[in-house]
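Lab notes, practical 5.
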Amino acid sequence: MSSINSVCWKVTYLFTALLLPGLFAGCGGGLEKFPTASVTGTVLCEGKPVESAIVYFEPLREGSSPGGKQGWALTDADGKFTISTYGDQDGAVIGKHRVRVGPPANSSWQCDCVTEEEKDVMQVDVVDGENDFEVVLPKKPRGYRQRGVLGDEDEEEDD
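Output from the prediction step:
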């Protein structure tokens, strides 16, 4: 009996060692990396730099193109940003993008321009090489209701 058990364990081990890795070799959907290019820029509100805003570069689908992964950055004190997609400051996926700017998770932060993750500010084409964009935010219209920051309730803006 013990020799039968030994053979069964060997067959099980062989199956596991040889066949399972082959089954998982094709399982990686959605993890594909698309080529990126350096993307830097400045976020401005009424000509002044916007500090601590979150900038999103979301690839747009063209035809049968899958688009790619969204990149993002946080602006510094001078309103400058460098986009990161797969790693630290590696740029954005090459191709057309919608650009959105959102407020940071800091309820005391204020800006006279529209900063909402769901509103497109502009569309750009990221090309191979260096890309530098000036992102000019639209001024909040009178009576504008800014969406809350990370789930806060909407508050009416005074203008």
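Observations recorded by the TA: Residues 36-142 form a domain with the Immunoglobulin-like fold (CATH 2.60.40.10). The chain has one helix and eleven strands.
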